[in-house]
Fold:
Amino acid sequence: MTKFRHVIWTMAAAAGLLLSASQSFAQKPDVGDQPGLIADDSVELDPQFRKTAVLYRTSEPPGTIIISTKDRHLFLVQGGGRALRYGIGVGRDGFQWQGLVNITKKAEWPDWTPPPEMIQRQPYLPRFMAGGPGNPLGARAMYLGTTVYRIHGTNRPDTIGTAVSSGCFRLVNADVADLYERVPVGTKVIIRQKPEL
Structure:
């Protein structure tokens, strides 16, 4: 009987540690959005996340945007087997998605109104923030279909290549401004979580 009690006590202690660890993790602040922080443009991106022309096979026409969530890259198809590749930040676990949408609106230095679901998760967020250098949407935004998601800039360039957003796709401000100039409203956007086979 003593052996049985020891096993039960050990299992209970382990469960308590796991619960304690998960609660402390849940209480950590979300560092994905920091309203008012001015972007540090001296942040050096990992070479794989810098804008570059690459070989890229696709049957999609030039001008199409293809987002690879898994690889943290956005591709703007150029034709001739080439694309411009940009490094991006993507949605954290539980906020990644895939689909086919179009750019329905574009904005320079967009205002930000976090949706109620986001405020519920991050109550410290402002209810509205005017566009500008400290705005988490950064220098440009391209709105995706009828969703609440956007391709946008960021005041956190250090998050490029990571999964910290609430489902949007973020680029450094210089890259989002470049992309913004290259694509019109109506541009087809394909979001993939896994590479095409």
Summary: The first helix runs from residue 2 to 26. The helical segments are 2-26, 116-121, 173-182. The chain is about 20% helix and 25% strand.
